[in-house]
């Protein structure tokens, strides 16, 4: 309905079957006419990562000029070796919860969603340990109306502006405690259990704030994934998106039984 309402505002070409719906061709024309924002970091060896993961490795096995690749030439081809949780990536429920959905089991209809952006970058600038409160979520709803069921809720902290400086992203103090923002259990419970959102995402490396992850406390990510929903980590460019009214497209490969994978995420903005 959200997508159809967007298209109807631009004028609809009648599709066969339902005279009230625009054709898919018309929907495509309208969508590509909109401004789009890439919410994805490009990945490469050396980017910030969780401390327990190895770095990415790449090997060129074919190159355009024969003799310069390890296996001949004529075209360009590489071997990529990296963990599933690499760069901007999807965490499926099975990442933390044995027996729940893996990457390949996420439904296609969960990949095109209304985008809700909760902007707390001012609060985070004052307090890097900030966690999203339930009161702040309800303040968003006072301004924009109830968060729609099936939405993708993104937490804007502007932490992505620290990319690709790994030390700045983790922001450790002299005692080795990390200081970066995160969600709260109250906010996540409200969003997933009452508002029935489909997925959520953030700019940091973790769902839980840095002071918690420094103690190996990943209770919030465990809770979120236990609801059998997915999340996206290490988003960027949320500062270019409105708090309401946009769509998000979340795309990723389909490894059988996959624990996670780099994702390509982008927003389609309203006029």
Note down, in words, how this protein is organized.
The protein is globular. The strands form two sheets. Strands 1-11-9-5-6-7-8-4-10 form a nine-stranded mixed sheet. The chain contains eight helices and eleven strands. With 271 residues, the protein is an alpha/beta fold. 36% of the residues are buried. It has three domains: 33 residues, no CATH class; 200 residues, 3-Layer(bba) Sandwich (Glucose Oxidase, domain 1); 28 residues, no CATH class.
Keywords:
two-stranded antiparallel ribbon, disordered N terminus, 23% helix, alpha/beta, nine-stranded mixed beta sheet, 3 domains, 271 residues, Glucose Oxidase, domain 1
Question: Concise description?
Answer:
23% of the residues lie in helices and 19% in strands.
- Low-confidence blocks of residues: 1-5, 7-16
Q: CATH-wise, what's the superfamily of the largest domain?
A: Putative cyclase
Task: Please work out how many helical segments DSSP would assign.
Answer: 8
Shape: globular
Query: How would you spell out the order of helices and strands?
Result: HHEEEEEHHEHHEHHEEEE
By helix and strand content, what is the structural category? alpha/beta
CATH class categorisation of the largest domain: Alpha Beta
Assembly level: single chain
Biggest pleated-sheet summary: 9 strands, mixed
Task: State the helical fraction.
Answer: 10-25%
Number of domains: 3
CATH architectural grouping of the largest domain: 3-Layer(bba) Sandwich
CATH topology of the largest domain: Glucose Oxidase, domain 1
- Percent of residues in beta strands: 15-25%
The tally of beta strands, per DSSP, is 11
Biggest sheet strand line-up: 1-11-9-5-6-7-8-4-10
Distance between the termini: 18 Å
Gyration radius from CA atoms, angstroms: 20 Å
Indicate the mean pLDDT: 92
